[in-house]
Design a protein that fits this description.
The chain is an all-beta fold. The chain has a domain at 6-258: Hypothetical Protein Tm1070, Chain: A. The protein is built from 1 helix and 34 strands. Strands 19, 27, 28, 29, 30, 31, 32, 33 and 34 form a 9-stranded mixed beta sheet that branches. Strands 9, 11, 12, 13 and 15 form a 5-stranded antiparallel beta sheet that branches. It has a 4-stranded antiparallel beta sheet with strand order 1-6-3-4, covered by helices on one side. Strand 11 and strand 12 (193-194) form a beta hairpin. The longest helix is centred in the first third of the chain and has 7 residues, at 6-12. It starts with 5 loop residues before the first helix and ends with a strand.
């Protein structure tokens, strides 16, 4: 039986109430140290004000083993909630299941148990707010996790991708609304712009998803940035990318990335790692010690030392979707080196390798900010992999800092370690943070200006509060693979 949708969910909100179970850290009497963007974000947990919430998981398949998708719905509130989980195929087939989620618990939805399709998008609707939705995909090339979107948009940007011989880049476009959307897809590559006629006026029917292997139209390019825009008045969609590389040409692994719904002049990353095995550190400069928080979580031993892999490569893809040139600064913070300065011309994309420069000391770990110095909006992703071609890791940046973040609900088979990395981008202000793990254990720390700190955490929900806006990431490691994603902000009450 098909469930009633929004109107029923709104009515249910009257009986499903509660507050987010996060202990606040007392705010210091300090000014916010950095500007926080007002541009829309791809995901955010609503808190305290919304009558209902919706989450959109665009990328994945169901039952065909290609990009097998599992969805995780976490209830952050104090009372049980009832999630309506709708699964859609490219043909518009729809299956809806009602899933109760207890307070503080995570419900696991194996999409293949509801529908069989080469592409299967998921809509999760709940009465009230205080819900987080993440998903996991599994393919022959690996496993990847990430948060789903909490908004639809008329435009989406993906700064990095590749269609080289060994790669398959698949872009998923999900239209959760009843009316069809008409979208245009354009691409910036390492040599020329591409505007394939096959992707002009692409119709995405209401309550359906399309999965597009862009290789046939944008073939054999080392670097591909994508812009997906709905035509005026034709609807709003959600866009995710799955990037696969088989390792035959130097890089192997699987990446899952949610697009950015807007360009912005500032982007932040909690974690960076400098590795330049062919070079020595700059004379007179030593890598600052890596700060690892001692875990207070029972059963989780703090690492004695967390060295950086000396063969890991780190790059940043910067897309300028506008017409004006962007003068950018990539600031490797907490290392004491000058920012990387680059010009990104209008309608173009560049890749900057931070680990290939002798200015970054060997073994350093740091937070990173990417700033458009002349205010031209940009979009940024970080791409890392081992020099031997393994452990591909693609992470979207955050254009907005926050004082409350959550994440980490998706378990991964054969994972060896799970870490939360927090970065204080302020150059002047100390920040107080509180980290709560799935078993209720709380760790409190102070992070110095421009400092970076890592917490080893168990599987399950992680909640972070801070006295000033910061950025955070979740990193999961296994044998020969790494996946990471930014923590999801919780809206201020």
């Amino acid at each position: 039986m098909k469930l009633p949708r929004w109107i029923v969910l709104v009515v249910l909100a009257a009986v499903v109430a509660g507050g987010v179970a996060i202990d606040r850290v007392t705010e210091r009497d300090q000014d916010t140290p950095v500007a926080v963007s007002d541009d829309p974000v791809a995901n955010e947990v609503t808190s305290g004000t919304a009558l209902s919430s919706a989450w959109y998981c665009a990328a994945g398949s169901a039952g065909d083993g290609h990009h097998e998708q599992t969805v995780f719905v976490t209830n952050l509130g104090a009372a049980e909630t009832l999630a309506a989980v709708s699964v859609y195929s490219p043909s518009g087939e729809e299956v809806v299941q009602e899933v109760p989620v207890q307070p503080g618990a995570t419900a696991t939805i194996a999409v293949a148990e509801l529908l069989t399709a080469q592409a299967a998008a998921v809509l999760v609707e709940t009465p009230g707010d205080e819900v987080l939705v993440e998903h996991r995909i599994v393919a022959e090339s690996g496993t990847a996790v990430g948060p789903c979107a909490s908004t639809t948009s008329g435009e989406w940007y993906l700064p990095w991708g590749t269609t080289r011989k060994s790669a398959v880049e698949t872009i998923y476009i999900f239209n959760p609304h009843s009316d069809a959307a008409v979208v245009d897809m354009t691409f910036e590559t390492d040599d020329v712009d591409r505007d394939p006629s096959a992707y002009e006026g692409l119709v995405v029917n209401g309550r359906s998803v399309v999965a597009i292997d862009i290789g046939p139209e944008v073939n054999r390019r080392d670097l591909v940035a994508a812009s997906i825009k709905a035509r005026s008045g034709s609807g709003r969609v959600v866009v995710e990318r799955v990037q696969e590389l088989d390792g035959s040409e130097g890089i192997g692994g699987l990446g899952l990335s949610l697009g950015a719904p807007a360009a912005a002049p500032e982007w932040w990353f909690a974690d960076g790692g400098a590795v330049a095995p062919e070079e020595e550190a700059v004379e007179g400069e030593e890598a600052p010690p890596t700060t690892v928080a001692e875990s207070e979580v029972e059963g989780v031993a703090p690492p004695a030392d967390r060295p950086v892999d000396p063969t890991r490569v780190e790059t940043f893809a910067v897309l300028n979707p506008g017409e004006r040139d962007a003068e950018i600064l990539i600031d490797v913070q907490a290392v004491g080196v000058e920012p990387f300065e680059r010009t990104v011309r209008g309608d173009s994309v560049i890749v900057v390798e931070t680990t290939g420069s002798s200015r970054v000391p060997l073994g350093a770990r740091y937070g990173v900010s990417v700033i458009s110095d002349n205010g031209v909006p940009i979009v940024v992703e970080r791409v890392r992999y081992d020099a031997d071609g393994t452990a591909l890791e693609i992470t979207e940046g955050r254009s907005r800092l926050t004082t409350r973040m959550v994440g980490g609900t998706a378990p991964i088979p054969d994972e060896l370690s799970r870490s939360v990395i927090l970065h204080n981008p302020s150059s002047e202000s100390l920040v107080e943070v509180g980290l709560t793990t799935a078993d209720g254990e709380v760790t409190e720390r102070e992070i110095d200006p421009n400092a970076w700190e890592l917490f080893e955490v168990p599987v399950g929900l992680v909640q972070v509060t801070s006295s000033l806006p910061i950025v955070g990431e979740l990193e999961v490691r296994g044998e020969g693979w790494v996946t990471s994603s930014t923590l999801v902000p919780v809206a201020e009450d």
